[in-house]
Design brief:
Helix content is about 50%, strand content about 15%. It has helices at about 10-25, 35-50, 65-75, 100-130, 150-165, 185-190, 205-220, 230-240, 240-255, and strands at about 5, 25-30, 55, 80-85, 130-135, 175-180, 225. Helix 1 links the parallel strand 1 and strand 2 (about 25-30). The N and C termini lie far apart (about 40 Å). Mean pLDDT is about 90; it is low at about 250-255. It comes from Actinoalloteichus caeruleus DSM 43889. It holds the Pfam family adh_short. Belongs to the short-chain dehydrogenases/reductases (SDR) family.
Length: about 260
């Protein structure tokens, strides 16, 4: 059976990935900070789908914890066929009002962990001439944010993944940047971002996001933007002059990403 390693699988998009991949027959390696949630999810997936569910309790903002997850990805006796770098968070609010420690933790999780874990997984996949990496980015990465640096971190994830996808073409390894819009998860509540004014048509379901991403991955695409409304937004943001994109983003962000 193939094996998938998923970071941040206990809620939202990560939870949908864990359940969908287990349903497809993947054994799973679940990586998150809270041991009790990991154990509960592992038991659920094992009982429901008959797969093996391994857990690694790790805070990806911490170098030692990232090293342990990277070591698991380099273990060729237990190869990982699909890496889903899903863990990430936003501090919300104005850049200058955030504590530097919080911004640094955000950078470590959103950028450094994606870099390190992809770097750990890719050599083995290339040697086996097969494997997949999904890096969860955001539609926010297409737009400048004047708030917490979240948009900048996601712009990096998308560009990083696109570059690797181009560089590994023909190798049997596929890489995808998943760029969802606003998805019904705990993400915005944790970041203290009020989404009450967002039209329902712009709120995505996590299962839909995961379905679209896997379909795009298997079609050989390097970037997945689920939902026609967000595909249009991504296209427009690339066509408009950057000064106009900055002006629109500045008026609508209200200090938040």
């Amino acid at each position: 059976m193939p094996t998938a390693l998923i970071t941040g699988p206990t809620s939202g998009i990560g939870l949908s990935f864990a359940r969908r991949l287990a349903a497809e027959g993947y054994d799973v390696v679940l990586v998150a900070r809270t041991e009790s949630k990991l154990s509960s999810l592992a038991a659920e997936l094992g009982d429901r789908y008959g797969v093996e569910a391994e857990t690694i309790t790790a805070d990806l903002a911490e170098a030692a914890d990232r090293d342990r997850v990277a070591a698991r990805l380099r273990d060729e006796e237990r190869p990982v066929d699909l890496l889903v770098n899903n863990a990430g968070f936003s501090t919300g609010g104005h850049f200058e009002r955030n504590e530097f420690s919080a911004l640094r933790s955000q950078l470590e999780v959103n950028v450094t962990a994606v870099l390190q874990l992809t770097h750990a997984a890719l050599p083995g996949m290339l040697a086996r001439r097969g494997g997949d990496v999904i890096n969860v980015s955001s539609i926010a990465g297409f737009l400048p944010g004047r708030g917490s640096t979240y948009t900048a971190s996601k712009a990096w994830v998308t560009s990083f993944t696109e570059g690797l996808a181009a560089g590994t073409r023909g190798s049997g390894v596929r890489l995808l940047a998943l760029c969802p819009g606003f998805t019904r998860t705990e993400f915005h509540e944790r970041a203290d971002i009020d989404m009450s004014g967002l039209p329902r048509s712009f709120r995505l379901d996590a299962d839909f996001v995961v379905h679209e991403s896997l379909r795009d991955l298997r079609r050989g695409r390097a970037v997945s933007v689920p939902g026609n409304q967000y595909k249009a937004l991504a296209s427009v943001s690339r066509l408009l002059p950057r000064w106009l994109v900055r002006r629109v983003a500045g008026r609508t962000a209200r200090g938040r990403d």
